[in-house]
Amino acid sequence: MLRSADKLDGYVLDNMEGAVDQAAFLAGTETPVAIIGARGTGKMYIARILHAKAGGSPDSLIAIDCREFRSREDANRRIRQALLAGAGKTLVFKSPQLMGAEAQLKLARQLATRLLADAETPTYLPSVRVVALLPDSLQRLVAEGVLQRKLASVLAAYPIRVPPLRHRQQAILRWARKILSQECASRGIEVKGFTPEAEQAMRQHPWHGNISELRQRVVRALEQKPGVEWLTPVDLQLFLGDQVASGSLELPLQGSPGYECAGGSYSPTAWEELTLVLAERVNQLLSTRRPLPLGTWLEDQIVLATLARYQGQHGPSAAFLRTSRRNIARWLPAIATRQGMRDDCSLWQEPARLVADWVRGLGSAGDSPLLAGQSLLLELLEAHCDTATVDLRAQLLGVSRPTYGKRLREWRAAALANAPAVAHG
After folding, report:
1. Radius of gyration, CA atoms only, the chain
2. Are 19 and 161 in contact (CB under 8 A)?
3. Secondary structure of residue 391 in the 3-state scheme
4. Is residue 52 assigned to a domain?
5. Which CATH number characterizes residue 65's domain?
6. Domain boundary residue, one of 248, 279, 298
7. Per-residue pLDDT tens for 127-148?
8. Residue 295 DSSP SS3
9. Domain interval for residue 62
10. Pick from 298, 393, 382, 411: which is nearest to 345 by CA?
């Protein structure tokens, strides 16, 4: 094992089914490397191991977050700057499939020829190591039309696959204890650990959000139960009363022939999980006639997740949400007054976690996440239009009946016009 990797902040070493060893081997080459794994599996951790094994210093690993590119020009300009200044560095492209097609093709051409594009005279790229972090196999991303074939070809030589946490059963409790230790240290508190029931629940949970989901559940438990000595399954929201948390529900593609052929490697996106959980909540609330303002809470959570993504900065948060800084400042007091209600509602904890996961993985281009969330909830509510009154559906959306009618008309008009959907990550 790599000695310097043992000290990488925020991680605990586990075997990862050979991904660590493969990264160490590829560190001796300058071949562009694709690191493939679902969200939260530790792809950046593997990139850091590759970089460290190659002898790179921590400050010479440069992460290029392709989610933040707002246009083709922005992508090309920032990539050009990184390549020109990349001598002796490792450039890690996070989610390059979210770039536009032309930007992907330009990057592929530069990596394949080792020549800088658009230079007046032929200019060779400096000696730079390139790593791409991708959420799915190259073949599947190409088939879905989000990754350009030429860029996939450049990255296809030695892809590293990081298995999901559910395939690393022996590591689940090690990660949980390490995360608990870190979070307790950062808060200056002491928690003895997890109850045996909590450890059993963690071993049985599918962990579609992987290590990120594990950290989110531990953090929420510590915030909701200050002073607790042991964390239980209920604290971790792995059980809701007698009902297993929705993460264990059957997800899209499971049970299909293609799923088994892929070795059970399919992991749903955060958007797919959020859609499933919200559909379950809508069905439950409509059947019990319990008028929780899901729409308002969903918008609250999207705003809070966006602020967390941008470390509380109102400027980039407003740009991401396609609104103004003034609106952000105007919304926050009301969002804060509803915080207690959201936190006290066990039905809302899983959607809140998945909203944070979804917002974190979105690209900056496209429609507002607020619009995407509103459209999703409207679609789910309208699926029950024959059995639920307009008044009840409006209450669940968190608006008046006239406003519900207005939003419904706008949603239908957008659907008829085939309006482009936001990238769902």
Report:
1. 23
2. yes
3. helix
4. yes
5. 3.40.50.300
6. 248
7. 999 999 999 999 999 999 999 9
8. helix
9. 4-161
10. 298
Between CA 141 and CA 144 the distance in angstroms is 5
- CATH code, domain carrying 218: 1.10.8.60
Is 377 within 8 Å of 278 (Cβ atoms)? yes
Q: 46 with 142, same domain?
A: yes
Q: Which pLDDT belongs to residue 264?
A: 42
One domain, residues 140 and 17: yes
Q: What is the pLDDT of residue 254?
A: 43
Residue labelled with tokens 């007046």: 120
Query: Are residues 280 and 205 located together in one domain of the fold?
Result: no
- Give the pLDDT of residue 414: 81
For residue 228, is pLDDT > 80? yes
Question: Total structural domains in the chain?
Answer: 3
CA nearest 305: which of 354, 339, 356? 356
Q: Per residue in 367-419, pLDDT tens?
A: 899 999 999 999 999 988 888 899 999 999 999 999 999 989 988 888 777 64
With respect to residue 253, please indicate whether it lies within any of the assigned structural domains.
no
C-alpha closest to that of 372 among 271, 290, 235: 271
> Where do the DSSP E strands lie in 1-89?
33-36, 61-65
Instruction: Tell me, yes or no, whether 263 lies in a domain.
Output: no
Average pLDDT, the chain: 86
Q: What is the pLDDT of residues 200-211, one digit of tens each?
A: 999 989 898 899
Do residues 340 and 209 share a domain?
A: no
356 vs 61, 265, 321, 360, CA distance in Å? 26, 23, 14, 6
Using alpha carbons, select from 274, 259, 276, 297 the residue that is nearest to residue 362.
274
